Amino acid sequence: WRVMTLAGSLNDFCMWLYFIVEQPPTIITYTSGPIIVLHFDTAITVKCKARGNPPPEYRWEKDGQAFVPPNFQTIRANQTKGLLVLHSEDMSKFEGKYRCYASNKLGTAMTNEIEIKAFSIPKFPKETLSPIVVTEGEPITLKCNPPEGVAPRLIYWMTVDLQHIEQNERVSMGTDGNLYFSNALKNDSRQDYGCFAAFNRIRTIVQKNAMALSFILSEQPLEIDNKASRIPSLLLPSGVQTEKVLLKGEDLQLECIPEGFPTPSVKWIKMGEVMSPRVKFNNYNKLLSLSAVEESDEGKYMCTAENSAGKAVHYFDVIVEEPPKWLTEPPQSQLTVIGSDVHIKCSVSGKPQPAITWRRNGVMFRGEMQVFDDTVILFNAKAEDSGVYQCEASNRHGNILANVNIVIMNMAPLILTENNQEYAAVVGKEITMNCSVFSSPPSMSLSQLRVSSLFVSTEFVVEYEENRWEPGRWKELQRVTGNQATAELKLYGNLNYQFRVYAVNAIGPGPPSEPTERHKTPPAAPDRNPENIKIQGHHPHQMEISWEPLSPVERNGPGFEYKVKYRQLGVEDSFTEHMVNRSVFLVNNTPTFVPYEIKILSRNSYGWGPEPKPVTGYSGEDVPTAAPRDIAVEVINTTVLRVSWTPVPPATVRGRLGGYNVHWVRRRSLLNPDKILDLSHSMSFSGNRSHVIVPGLEPFSEYKLTVYVFNKKGNGPKSDPVTFNTPEGVPEQVTVLTSSIIQRDSVRLEWAQPPKSNGILTSYLLQYHLINETALEVIDSKEINITGADTNHWTLQGLKGDSLYRFDLRACTRAGCGPPQAEESRTDFPEPGDGNWRISEAVNASQSFHIIDGLEPGTVYTVRLMAKRLLDNASIFEDVIETRTKGERSAASQESSFSTHGWMIGTMCAVALLTLVVVIACFLRKNKGGKYAVKEKEEPHSDTESQKMNDDTFCDYSDSDEKPLKGGSLCSLKGDDATGDSVSRYTLGDYADGGREFNEDGSFIGEYSGHRHRGSVSEPNGPSLVNV
């Protein structure tokens, strides 16, 4: 429940009203159709949900009738939620169109139609097929007649061992699934032609019984040049013309499958118009396809099947239509008060124009409502007029529906301003009158009216209403100046009138007077004849006459009809006459595009209308029959022509002249005359003319040109072809131009040929300019003519060093030189060496490296990686490298050595620290001047090897040569010999020995193992002398 609070005030007066708001039903959501039910489905759910107050109840209709469940256990309709659940093993019995109705005491809302489609398992009927016997060369159609099923459906023709039947220009399948033979040959004979239908959505493939095709033996072989040649006709479609109606946005498919011998070819045109570039041709040109059609795709299409024996044509009238749609938006719900006029407008569009059906609470109007075209008017609305009104617009392509809630309140507006207030006013001056109003909903009346000046009525408007054709609808009949009180009215006969009058001044119209009594006019003959007569010829030998019909009120009496009179202008004296009731008449078997004189008269039971004036029009058009003659071509330049001809006789146009079409084919380029191109182009020129200018040709080429006339119906025959050559032209711009510095005063230029030479290349023109970099001006210019079409590089020498140059290169033919390609370069990049480039052998494309040998140590090289066969100057990679002398190692190598031999560094550090400690100890003892008499103790234990150490020990010294050290070794911190032996093994002398060297980073080049130990000590067997 909702509570609405309303307030109104006048000065300090306030008033509050509370009341419960009831709401009619409004559909919120429902299941939109169509609902596809497959053969394996056993249940479906259809939703319908509405809101309202009180809550709505639901009911369903099927195909316009109340839906009564055939079995209560299988169907459940939820009365409060609108849910419809259907259960059955056979869902086909639920096929149909459903509507959901939601109702409460204020009205009934309804949904659009919800269609349920049930599909069973698709299958071909069981049938026995007799062999088909044909004569060689005759056409034959193998019919498939595939079963209906869930889209998409795909058709295939295969043999029993699932080999596809070969299709070509002679044998092809139509969109209807049939297999068509334009002419049968003996090798078409087989016993197992099978049609297969695949339904991918349900993963089902069904097969028709195999068909056999055999031939009647003929003694004469089938040859093209004998009497077996046959004029084409169409196997599909039948007749002369087909009307194709489809919705905007759908895909168009037009199909022509011919028969004849030899096999006809198929061509398509859009008559009188250029074919859309979106058109595609499939199935060997037999199928024209156009996706997502638009209104511009409407028109006349023609297919032509032609062979050496003749041709056949078929016309397609393509009509693009639209389902109903709202012009702006659906009609909106309204809340108003009793006594007002309510207008419900249902503005829709569509093609064909939709018909509008009105309902109130789901029930069609029975005449109690006033309906005018697309509008329902509730005059002087009452509370009982409240309800849910439905506007449904439909044409053959669909329908749309809107539910409109109309609520008529039972509270009229309350005027709070006192009655009979007087206002003093002066003519020509402004006056303001207040009117305070309370209403629900808020009143649309003015609460304040400001009148800039007072006016008198300027004119009167007389309106009429008649109750025969448009009861309740008032129409303006005549306007009368404000100083008159009478009017003379012109009325139609056989009507029952009433009239009313209202006044109009500068502010606006006033209220109408009360209607007069009814006045019935007597019947009479029609006052006028139809207008807007149109004469059209959609097809040859046919003429359509149409006109704007008289409205029912203009007929003046019963028995109304039209008389159509026509005669061929300037040929026939008397008119041919027909009486018709419609506003269109078709005249058949007319000559092609000849003028006719037409009259349309109105008549009823009381007489004829006035004598009409004749209208002239033409009968149906046909394609032109003659070709232009005396075709002449004047070559203006390498790409432009002047084409002239003798126009065709007007009688051969057989229609309104559309213009002339010039068609030309580029046969070959004279640079490569052995290669046939056959590139087609055409241009259309409207109107009657005898010469045109044709642009867009290619230089130095051979062309063939024809001209033909066209009208709305199509193209006429082509003229005799004219062959001509276009002269050489200047080349296009050189695509690539690069420069590289070879020496300080030399630049190498490299380029690629222009994409189009437009003639025979003879040379290149190279211009180079010295540029002032400050003023950006040219200081000096020179040019060189480089002969040879195959030249793609050039070296300029003697240039000024450290300067900016601009190079312009043009390709040239005998016709001249083309536009320049520019490149700028500086001469300030001296490269060492001889300046000569050396090229390696080809590198495998799968390789990611290449070794270059034979380089000089300590030399700077520029290295380029080039793409072979691309362009000589297409450098993929370029870098400058410097070779090193033997023994040098890069920083990266040093870093790698440090990280790899860290353990050696640690060892060296330990040895250095130990040596430092020993040296310090030696100095300390020496400073004390002490002499250690240990020599005597050690001598008995010394051996020969230990004595030899005196020659090579690291610390062998004394105060003088005469005073050798005595006592323990200074390199031994302990008196034991084990320590002395250990020290002797790791003295720096071991590493400083000859044949060993250090790297730049201080690491050893040699290895520890395998050293020659000078002064090494064997394992001691007693005390030994160790000199440090």
UniProtKB/TrEMBL annotation:
It comes from the Eukaryota. Residues 427-524, 529-622, 627-729, 730-832 form the Fibronectin type-III domain. It is a single-pass type I membrane protein. Keywords: Cell adhesion, Cell membrane, Disulfide bond, Glycoprotein, Immunoglobulin domain, Membrane, Repeat, Transmembrane, Transmembrane helix. Residues 1018-1028 have a biased composition (Polar residues). Its main location: membrane. The chain crosses the membrane at residues 903-924. Belongs to the immunoglobulin superfamily. L1/neurofascin/NgCAM family. This is Cell adhesion molecule L1-like b. It comes from Astatotilapia calliptera (Eastern happy). The lineage of its organism: Eukaryota, Metazoa, Chordata, Craniata, Vertebrata.
